[in-house]
Amino acid sequence: MVQQLSDEIVARGKKKRIQDVYLLPKGGQYQVIFRKNNYRNVYQILEIEIAEQLISRFKYLGQMDVGEKRKAQLGACTYLLNEEMQRIRISTVGNYQQQESMVLRFLYPFEKNTLLYFFPEVVQGLQIKTNRRGLYLFGGPVGSGKTTLMYTLARKLGIQVITIEDPVEIEETQFLQLQINQKIKQDYETLIKLSLRHHPDILIIGEIRDQQTAKAAIRAALTGHRVYATIHAKSLLGVRERLVELVQSTEEIQNSLQGIIYQRLLTDEADECVKGLVAYQLVSKESKSAFDWNTQLKRLFEEGRIHEEIYELEKE
Question: Which parts of the sequence belong to the Bacterial type II secretion system protein E domain (predicted)?
Fold first, then answer.
C-alpha cells in the first residue's frame, strides 16, 4: 500500500509539474500538500501510521538514516516509475513530539523548466547587460525561478559554465555541475576554489547562505571571473543589504558587485498563467541602468493583468 501511495504521489507531482510535496503532521493526522509556485493545496489526509511508513520509504530511497527521527536530514533519489525517472530531493525534520515532517522537491531537466515573463524583452536585455566580469546576485522568494533565470542567461551564451549547488536542482548536460557533499568535506568554499582552476566563463553558485560562501564568491569575482549567485532577500534593495550583513565590508562589495537581479512569480489574470516579473540594478564603469520594480507592477495593474490586492501586496 505504501509503495502504491508513493507511486501515486510521484506520478501526480510529475504530471502536474509540482515543485514541492509536503507531508506535515496536523493534530492526529498528516496532510499531503502539493505546492506549485505560490499555490498550495491539500492533496490527501493520511493516518499517522501510514504517513510514518511513507516517510520511512522515501528516507530509505534517499539513503538517509531511517531510524533517526530527531535530526534534520537531507537526501536525494531517482524515482523509477513506469520506465520514467523523476529526480527528487528529500528533506526531513522532527518536531518536539518526535513527529517527522518531510518535503519532496521535484527536480526537472533544464529544457523542461520553461518560464514565461511579463516583459520578455527585459530578460533578453539581461543577456547583454550581464556580460562583464564580476558578481551578479539573483534574489527572490523560494521557488521564484532564480536558478532557471541564471541557467537561461548562461546557456544561451554557449560558453564554459560551472555550477556549484546544494543539491543540483536542474540537470543541464552543457554545464559542469558540482554538488556540495559535507561527508567528504566538499563545501561551497572548497568547490569554488576548485572550479576556478578550470577557468569557467561563468561560475554559478546555487546560494549564498553564510559569510564564508559570500566571501568566496566575492574572491572569485575579484579574480576576474563572472559569477552568478542566488541570495535570499525580501526586495531588490534588500539583496545588497543582505550581502553587506554577511560580508561586513562595503569596499569588497563595491569592487566586485556588478548587478542585482530580482524576480518574483505573479499570476497574469489576462493570460491565466504564472509569469516572472524581473527588476534589476546594474553598474558598470561606463553606465548605470535599472529596471524599477514598482513601475512595472503599476503598469501591470493599470493594464488589468494583476488584481489590486496583488499590486498592494507586492509593492516595495
Answer: 196-210
How far, in Å, CA of 40 to CA of 244, rounded? 34
3-state DSSP assignment of residue 297? helix
Domain endpoint, select from 72, 107, 142 = 107
Q: 278, 262 in Cβ contact below 8 A?
A: yes
- Burial of 78 from C-beta contacts in 10 A (0-12 / 13-18 / 19+): exposed
Domain boundaries, position 293: 113-314
Domain holding 241: CATH number?
Answer: 3.40.50.300
Q: Do β-strands 73-81 and 170-171 pair in parallel, antiparallel, or remain unpaired? A: unpaired
Model confidence pLDDT, tens digit, residues 9-30: 999 999 988 889 999 999 889 9
Contact 181, 302 (CB under 8 A): no
Contacts for 242 with CB less than 8 Å, ≥ 6 apart: 139, 231, 232, 233
Residue 230 bridge partners (DSSP): 138
Distance CA(234)–CA(238), nearest Å, equals 6
pLDDT digits (tens, 9 = 90+) for 225-277: 999 999 988 888 899 999 999 998 889 999 999 999 999 988 888 888 888 99
What CA–CA distance (Å, rounded) separates 83 from 242? 44
Are the beta carbons of 201 and 157 closer than 8 angstroms? yes
CA–CA dist 25, 97 (Å, integer): 10
Q: Give the DSSP per-residue string, 225-260.
A: -EEEEEE--SSHHHHHHHHHHHH--HHHHHHHEEEE
User: Contact 156/174 with Cβ under 8 angstroms?
Assistant: no
